[in-house]
Specification:
This protein is of the alpha+beta class and 128 residues long. It is 34% helix and 23% strand. It has a single domain, classed as Ribosomal Protein S5, domain 2, CATH 3.30.230. The chain has a 5-stranded mixed sheet. 27% of the residues are buried.
Length: 128
């Protein structure tokens, strides 16, 4: 098997995921997973597709993350890993689909409008 690469996105974050056979190491922007995401919950989110398919020790994963915040980056990485696992083995698809790891979350930040301080907020109205 060669290197499989996929893309995961969430909000403004983009994750380019490269999966190859290995011992289960995950590196993000040339750093260890625990160094890049110090919070346990974010580390767990990145590993969720691997834990759901029992393949955590089978693949080495290199991820290039760009844009967004830490939560969006973790979820983008999760989507990229799930897509890569589907490309490697089609039998994993039903498990990942049922868990919701293959769904791209379409919610984005609404743009700011002119003449307003935010997307929907208006400046305080003064009658006089």
């Amino acid at each position: 098997m060669e290197v499989v690469n996929t893309v995961g996105r969430r909000k403004a974050a983009v994750a380019r995921v490269f999966v190859k056979p290995g011992k289960g190491q995950i590196t993000i922007n040339h750093k260890e997973l625990a160094t890049y995401f110090p919070l346990e919950i974010l580390q767990f989110q990145v590993k969720q597709p691997l834990l759901a398919t029992n393949t955590a020790e089978n693949y080495d994963i290199a991820i290039n993350l760009d844009g967004g915040g830490i939560k969006g980056q973790a979820e983008a990485a999760r989507l990229g890993i799930a897509r890569a696992l589907c490309e490697i083995d089609a039998e994993m698809r039903p498990v990942l689909k049922k868990a919701g790891f293959l769904t791209r979350d379409p919610r984005e930040v609404e743009r700011k409008k002119p003449g307003q301080p935010g997307a929907r907020r208006k400046f305080q109205f003064s009658k006089r």
